[in-house]
Specification:
- It is a single chain.
- The chain has nine helices and 15 strands.
- The strands form three sheets. A nine-stranded mixed β-sheet has the order 1-2-6-5-4-7-8-15-14, sandwiched between helices.
- The two termini are 14 Å apart.
- Bound molecules: S-adenosylmethionine.
Length: 339
């Protein structure tokens, strides 16, 4: 079923008025705080303690992520931005005119601007992100700068299928966009389910442009997640700060250290918070105990070979029309067609 045909669900907060220009709509379907508490308590009760990476992105987390993108070690952002500029004409040829662009995990607006500038007269852009703090200013700026475009935003968790509101339709084809290798933050099986959810939002002939980080050596990967300035460490620790603030936590951040390394067997960067002491703390009224050197696993960033990603996409109803890589084969962008 084409889910764009469905009405937006009733209980969400909607702001559709834009008397002085600005976004055409901003729908807030942010998950409730109870979900955050339940997920954190469940994660901290596992033998390998865990916090889901989607909880990194409060306002400060989103800001820190933008700073990570500017560190010299984090090749991902600058490589993908350059590649997007280089392949813009190719993307435009395949996508055609009058498309509605739907971006997952949009964050700041840097990448979408490259895509919108390349496309011939796109008609609508819908940003989806769990972080309202990142999404709102981005769609405000875009709606000011792209006056012919219907710009809207949905604050939502893309772990579940997203229903688009009627305002997000403008008649032409849809082009979903998922840059940043955010797909790498999902377990490989979960990534396939996500691809299937996106496929279900699209009609045959619609497209899906996905940025995917490639497998490579530790010499590049380990520094990318351990920048000298310590921004990635601060981003990782910030989730504990968020737990203290939003869930009445009593965690002493000084008793944790950032740990990130490439797990070659699983083809993923693992990010953890390592306890530097035997300690106890409280989260949402529950006591948590941690031993010295025990870790909380906070994020994976899976790397793919091109054939691995093509296989995953083609197993859920896409055909890979084009794959582009940068000169050093650090990063890939795939154009998938819904079949
Ligand atoms: C790795 S950052 C990438 C940001 C940007 N797309 C880029 O390419 O630089 C991940 C983005 O996805 C958002 N995000 C993470 N998990 C999410 C989820 N489950 N649902 C919706 N957005 C999510 C974050 O807020 C953040 O903006």
């Amino acid at each position: 079923m084409d889910k764009t045909a469905l009405e937006a669900s009733a209980p969400e907060q909607a702001d559709r008025s834009s008397p002085c220009g600005g976004p055409a709509f901003l729908l807030d379907r942010h998950p409730p705080k109870d979900d955050f508490a339940a997920d954190v308590l469940e994660g901290l009760s596992k033998p390998q303690k865990q916090i889901l990476p989607k909880y990194f992105y409060d306002a400060r987390g989103s800001d820190l992520f933008e700073r990570i993108c500017r560190t010299p070690e984090y090749y991902v952002t600058r490589t993908e931005l350059k590649l997007l500029s280089d392949i813009g004409p190719d993307i435009a040829d395949i996508a055609g005119s009058n498309v509605t662009v739907i971006e997952f995990g949009s964050g700041s607006d840097a990448k979408i601007r490259r895509l919108l500038d390349a496309l011939p007269s796109p008609c609508a852009y819908v940003a989806i992100d769990i972080s309202r703090a990142a999404l709102e200013p981005a769609i405000e700026d875009l709606s000011r700068d792209y006056t012919d475009l219907t710009v809207g935003g949905i604050v939502a968790d893309f772990s579940a299928p997203i229903e688009l509101p009627p305002e997000a339709r403008c008649g032409g084809k849809k082009l979903a966009f998922f840059p940043g290798s955010t797909i790498g933050n999902m377990e490989r099986g979960r990534a396939r389910l996500f691809l299937a959810d996106v496929r279900a939002m699209l009609a045959p002939g619609d497209g899906f442009l996905v940025g995917v980080d490639l497998r490579k050596g530790r010499d590049i990967l380990d520094p990318a997640y351990n920048d000298d300035e310590g921004v990635t460490a601060e981003f990782n620790l910030n989730v504990l700060r968020r737990i203290n603030r939003e869930l009445g936590g009593t965690i002493d951040l000084n008793k944790f250290r950032h740990l990130a390394f490439y797990n070659e067997a699983d083809g993923r960067i693992e990010m953890h918070l390592r306890s530097t002491a035997d300690q106890r703390f409280e989260v949402a009224g529950e006591q948590i105990a941690m031993a010295r050197d025990e870790t909380i696993h906070t994020e994976n960033s899976y790397k793919y070979s091109v054939p691995e990603f093509v296989l995953a996409a083609e197993s859920v109803g896409f055909r890979v029309l084009r794959t582009w890589k940068d000169r050093k084969s650090l990063f890939s962008i795939h154009y998938l067609a819904a079949i």
